[in-house]
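Suppose a colleague, Dr. K., hands you the sequence of a protein chain of 199 amino acids and asks what its three-dimensional shape might be. Before reaching for any lab equipment, you can write down a predicted structure in token form. Begin with the sequence itself:
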Amino acid sequence: MPTGVAIRDAREQLFDAAERVLLRDGPSALTSRAVTTEAGCAKGVLHRHFADFDAFLADLVLDRVARVDRQAAVLRASAGAGTVVGNLSGALTELFGSVAVAVVGLVTSRDELRARLRQVRPTGVPVLAEATAMVAAYLCAERERGRLAAYADVDTLAPTLIGAGHLLFADRKGAPPEPEAVEKVVRTVVAGVVRGPSA
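The predicted structure, expressed as tokens, is then:
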């Protein structure tokens, strides 16, 4: 990109470019040059907006965490409508069918990035921790509505669903799982606690 030409929403453009590189080539291919080349801009653009590449990656992860927070509000609002299995299956597919699996790989592969993220989020793996909280909040809302048994152990069910979902979608190079496969896992995990026709 020629010097002096403004880039609209440079941060978002760079984040989207990083996401494409991450999904296509994996965490090891994610460099500042790869990101700026993918975004179609000069390398200096990234350094005008971020102190260094690790700062860029930390902001990328936090931006994707914010997306999970927005998805959580939508999922919680769905409590009482549709089916519990359908709502959870859709949420897991939306979460892991996007960049979440690749972001987890990125976080676990870069020590400096993990150290920076620990300053903001001292516990848990970013994205997975928020996803677990999202599912737990939804399950609590369904339990309050009587669509889950009063004894449903939300603190065990939520990480179980997130872990199983993550494993289903973890093969970056393979085809994503069929909707039926996701539903089967969800149905199996919640089978003992779903009540009435809301399965």
